[in-house]
Specification:
Layout: E1 2-5, H1 7-14, H2 18-37, E2 43-49, E3 52-56, E4 63-67, E5 74-79, H3 85-93, E6 98-100, E7 104-108, H4 115-126, H5 128-131
Parallel strand pairs: 1-2
Antiparallel strand pairs: 2-3, 3-4, 4-5, 5-7, 6-7
Helix pairs in contact: 2-4
């Protein structure tokens, strides 16, 4: 898999407070690992959308992540709100995550993230155009 990164992305990660930076870099690593493990993904583009670290594939829906100072005890992974992604995640993983509407999975700073479950959500997003017609998005 080919990864291309906009150089501006690193500066966003560098500007997070240290305790947040660690969490955000762990999410970033998880997205990249998931893309590498997903056979149908040949390219992953890391960029900024709305000033937030974002990941785009040719066959997927944009996946963003961020921490905001106005909610200092949480950070989130954002999905396109018009997709079926978060509504499907809510059905399958309601006991694993806290959700914000149909747009985000929200993590608390002290939460242990179930990485294998989150990787399923990431994969569904990065391959959304291939799985959107499947009842549970291939999960």
């Amino acid at each position: 898999m080919k990864l291309t990164t906009d150089p501006k992305v690193d500066s966003v990660f560098d500007n997070y407070p240290d305790h947040v930076k660690e969490k955000m870099l762990a999410l970033r690593k998880l997205v990249i690992e998931t893309a590498e493990e997903t056979e149908v993904i040949s390219e992953l583009h890391e960029t900024l959308k709305w000033g937030e670290p974002s990941f785009v594939t040719k066959i997927g829906s944009t996946l963003r992540m961020d921490w905001k100072a106005k909610n200092p005890n949480q950070y989130a992974m954002y999905f396109q709100c018009t997709s079926r992604l978060v509504s499907t995640f809510k059905l399958i993983y309601k006991d694993h995550f806290h959700f914000e509407g149909n747009r985000a999975i929200v993590f608390s700073m002290d939460q242990k993230i179930p990485t294998s479950v989150l990787k399923n959500c990431i994969k569904a997003s990065l391959t959304y155009h291939k799985v959107k017609n499947l009842m549970t998005l291939g999960i």
